[in-house]
């Protein structure tokens, strides 16, 4: 069975021309340059019914045609579909004709006989503008969560968070585009899962191929992505298929893109701009039918300013940008994530799912999770596999969230960076009371947890509260 060919762009290019020879030549030129999603129309009366029926990415419209002239159609198209770029094809470069078309809303114009370079350039520029307009529409709707068309595409991302739900809607809107996607976020937030969701929502038939580019030098990068033919260099005893070829008709995820060398960035830029690549030892470039997703936990904008990342590549990659929030900004997902990870690891280990103590949710809500969801998963996995009874023990979590504090420890001085004092210093007793109140507030009134948070024993904390009962038994702290 022949492999399926993904269409580019995802929404068709419409060529409207009454001359059979011209329309055949134009479509052939577009196909040779990677544009495979084309609709031919040789009767101008069919244009508006087509636009009413389906969405398209741009239109190449001849001016001089029987039935309805192209410049007449242009006015109606601009009025009803203002976002659609229309390129006018004219048999003359008469200034009055050109100006008239531009006033009616034409995006660009080309003159006959049509130059291949001019045609391809105009089409690519129009597509970029149309993608930007789609991006703006998607951004405007980003905070207006609606029902997902393909909720199963996001099954691996466990969340009930409203912000992430809005992000899923955004992903569904931009996924069918063939333009690059940049996924940003801290380590452990789930960037690869988001890339998989983009791939699934895109409907592309090929595979999702993941390449970590952080450790690839220029030669290895080229060989890994583009492959080589037998004899391309010393030691190349056989041909190697590159990752771009393996992702044919699908998606290529380039992880840790911020670590890519400047020389490799040039090759990646060509792949994105020209949609073609050259395996080592091959003189004629091959067409690339892949959607590029790049992910990073660093700021590419800062790296551009430092001269470590090409600005033109950065702006190409960020056509569509997905920023995943850290776990500390979606702590409402903790119960879902804890239950999910505990159940999954128990199932994999062939043991009964543990009982999750309610205190665990409160305890972890006081932690910043520098390793994000991945760190939480590791914490739960360790606790489930180490448990001895039916209930998950909190001891391992206390070691991470609030390690025991020894008096006089050198790193205690760092606390001063987060504590400020007013003009009048409080008494030592007053500071202790405020500290305990804050710990009780964070622990939901749980004395054992509050004691762990400030590094003392439960007995010591209980005695302190009883000695200062006037400050703690007024129901404002949740104690008593």
Describe this structure as you would to a colleague.
The structure is a single chain. This protein has 480 residues and is of the alpha/beta class. The protein folds into 4 domains: 13-139, Response regulator (Rossmann fold, 3-Layer(aba) Sandwich), CATH 3.40.50.2300; 142-324, Rossmann fold (3-Layer(aba) Sandwich); 328-401, Helicase, Ruva Protein, domain 3, CATH 1.10.8; 425-480, Arc Repressor Mutant, subunit A (Orthogonal Bundle), CATH 1.10.10. It contains 20 helices and 14 strands. The strands form 4 sheets. It has a 5-stranded parallel beta sheet with strand order 2-1-3-4-5, with helices on both faces. Strands 7-10-13-6-14 form a 5-stranded parallel beta sheet. Helix 3 (70-80) links the parallel strand 3 (58-62) and strand 4. Helix 17 (428-442) packs across helix 18 (447-454) and helix 18 (447-454) packs across helix 19 (458-467). The longest helix is centred in the first third of the chain and has 25 residues, at 116-140. The radius of gyration is 30 Å and the shape is elongated. The chain starts with 12 loop residues before the first strand and ends in an 8-residue tail after the last helix. The model is unreliable at 405-410 (pLDDT under 50).
- The CATH class label of the largest domain is Alpha Beta
How many separate helices?
Answer: 20
Mean pLDDT: 85
Amino- and carboxy-terminal Cα gap: 74 Å
- Main structural class: alpha/beta
The count of domains is: 4
Strand fraction: 5-15%
Report the C-alpha radius of gyration, rounded.
30 Å
| Topology-level CATH name of the largest domain | Rossmann fold
The CATH homologous superfamily of the largest domain: P-loop containing nucleotide triphosphate hydrolases
Main sheet record: 5 strands, parallel
Helix percentage range:
40-55%
Poorly predicted runs: 405-410
* Architecture (CATH level 2) name of the largest domain: 3-Layer(aba) Sandwich
């Amino acid at each position: 069975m022949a492999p399926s060919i993904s269409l580019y762009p995802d929404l068709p290019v419409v060529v409207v021309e009454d001359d059979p020879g011209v329309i055949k030549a134009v479509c052939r030129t577009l196909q040779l340059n990677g544009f495979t999603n084309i609709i031919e129309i040789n009767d101008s009366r069919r244009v508006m019914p087509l636009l009413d029926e389906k969405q398209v990415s741009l239109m190449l419209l001849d001016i001089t045609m029987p039935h309805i002239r192209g410049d007449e159609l242009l006015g109606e198209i601009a009025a009803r579909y203002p976002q659609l770029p229309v390129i006018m094809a004219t048999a003359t470069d008469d200034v009055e004709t050109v100006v008239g078309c531009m006033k009616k809303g034409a995006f660009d114009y080309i003159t006959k006989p049509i130059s291949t370079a001019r045609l391809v350039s105009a089409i690519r520029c129009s597509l970029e503008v149309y993608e930007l307009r789609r991006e703006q529409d998607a951004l405007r709707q980003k905070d207006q969560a609606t029902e997902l068309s393909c909720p199963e595409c996001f099954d691996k991302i466990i969340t009930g968070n409203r912000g992430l739900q809005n992000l899923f809607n955004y992903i569904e809107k931009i996924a069918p585009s063939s333009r690059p996607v940049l996924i940003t976020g801290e380590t452990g937030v789930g960037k690869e899962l988001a890339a998989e969701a983009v791939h699934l929502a895109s409907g592309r038939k090929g595979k999702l191929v993941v390449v970590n580019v952080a450790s690839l030098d220029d030669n290895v990068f080229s060989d890994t992505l583009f492959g080589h033919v037998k004899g391309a260099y010393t030691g190349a005893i056989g041909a190697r298929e590159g990752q771009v070829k393996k992702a044919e008709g699908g998606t290529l995820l380039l992880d840790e893109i911020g670590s890519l060398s400047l020389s490799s960035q040039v090759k990646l830029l060509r792949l994105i701009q020209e949609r073609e690549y050259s395996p080592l030892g091959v003189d004629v470039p091959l067409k690339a039918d892949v959607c590029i997703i790049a992910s990073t936990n660093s700021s590419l904008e800062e790296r551009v300013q430092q001269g470590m990342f090409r600005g033109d590549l950065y702006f190409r990659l960020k056509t569509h940008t997905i920023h995943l929030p850290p776990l500390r900004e979606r702590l409402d997902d903790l119960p879902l994530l804890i239950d999910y990870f505990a159940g999954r690891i128990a199932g994999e280990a062939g043991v009964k799912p543990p009982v999750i103590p309610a205190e665990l949710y409160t305890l972890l809500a006081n932690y910043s999770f520098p390793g994000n969801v991945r760190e939480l998963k590791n914490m739960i996995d360790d606790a489930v596999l180490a448990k001895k009874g039916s209930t998950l023990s909190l001891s391992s979590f206390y070691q991470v969230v609030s390690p025991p504090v020894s008096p006089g420890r050198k790193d205690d001085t760092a606390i001063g960076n987060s504590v400020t004092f007013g003009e009048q210093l409080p008494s030592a007793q007053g500071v202790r009371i405020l500290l305990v109140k804050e710990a009780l507030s964070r622990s939901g009134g749980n004395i054992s947890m509050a004691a762990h948070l400030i590094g003392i024993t439960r007995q010591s904390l209980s005695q302190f509260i009883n000695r200062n009962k006037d400050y703690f038994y007024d129901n404002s702290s949740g104690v008593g």
